[in-house]
Amino acid sequence: MIRSVAAIPLKEPFSSGYIIKKTVSPVEQKVRGMWSRGDILRVNLDMEAQSDMTWVVVSDPIPAGATIMRADMGGSSLLTAGERSGGWAWVAFTERSFEAFRNYYEYVPKGKWTVEYTMRLNNEGIFHLPATRVEALYAPEMFGEIPNKVMEINSGSVQ
């Protein structure tokens, strides 16, 4: 098997075993319809597996400086209270890094599943995020990707 990987920006969703749909909605937003520093948003990832698979990872990049909220971060339990997940996928580990939200699944059965997380935007700027990706760790030919929109975050001061 010969495989080549190139850093070419993804223009449209690609599915080879997994389908992803991403929805971003505000939890707290200073100015309606515009992201500002300090805003809190919820990311919903709806995924569909075309077959049963073990050891699957979902990786969703976040803007530089953003913080993925956790219930054990003082005061964040109210902000993360609405998070939901669904389906029969077995989560083995959740990673909330400075670059991405990742869920590692021990087993993902054929069908649909959902995961949500909450994030605070801390830096202003224009962010070109890499693709959101679902991949079977031991079968790399089984994956799905969707491009992320450019994210513009303003200073948060109302003029």
3D architecture notes:
The protein is an all-beta fold and 159 residues long. It has one domain: Immunoglobulin-like, CATH 2.60.40. The protein is 3% helix and 51% strand. The protein is built from one helix and 14 strands, in the order E-E-E-E-E-E-H-E-E-E-E-E-E-E-E. It has a six-stranded antiparallel sheet, with no helix packed on it. Strands 2, 4, 6, 7 and 10 form a five-stranded antiparallel sheet that branches. The chain is globular. The termini are far apart. The model has no long low-confidence stretch (mean pLDDT 90).
Radius of gyration: 16 Å
Number of strands: 14
User: Any idea what the CATH superfamily is called?
Assistant: Alpha-macroglobulin, receptor-binding domain
What is the CA–CA distance across the termini? Answer: 58 Å
> What class, by secondary structure content?
mainly beta
Q: Can I get a quick summary?
A:
By secondary structure, this protein is mainly beta. Helices cover 3% and strands 51% of the residues.
